[in-house]
Specification:
Largest sheet: 3 strands, antiparallel
Strand order of the largest sheet: 1-2-3
Number of domains: 1
Order of helices and strands: EEEHHHH
Radius of gyration: 20 Å
Shape: elongated
Distance between the termini: 35 Å
Strand content: 5-15%
Mean pLDDT: 83
Helix content: 55-70%
Number of helices: 4
Low-confidence stretches: 1-8
Amino acid sequence: MAVSGLIVLDGRSRNCSAGAPPIAIDPFAPLRQRFLIRCADQLAELKAIACQGDPLPGGDPLIKIAHSLAGAAGTFGFAEISARASALETLLINQADGAAVRAALDALIGDIERMLA
C-alpha cells in the first residue's frame, strides 16, 4: 500500500522513489519455506512407514501426516500433493485394502520427492 512515498510490504514501511514500482515481497515466503522443510521431514516419515510393510496396522500416524499434508499443500498451491494426501487419508479412514493404501502412499511419496527436487 503506497502512502506519501512510503510503501508497506510484509508489515514494514519502506521509502519508495516517486514513480518507482514497489518491491514485491511475498509475505507468505517464510511460511512456505517452513512448509517445505516440514514436507521433507514428513517425507522421511512416510518412507519409514512404507518400509515397514503393510501401512494399515497402526495407521493413525499415517492418517495424521496425510491430513496435515492435504491441508498445508493446498494452502501453499501444491494441489496435486494435497489431492493425493487427501485420497490417502480417505483410504486409511475407510480402512481400504493394503494394496490401495500402498499405491496411494507410493504415489504421494513420489509427488513429494518431485516437488522437493
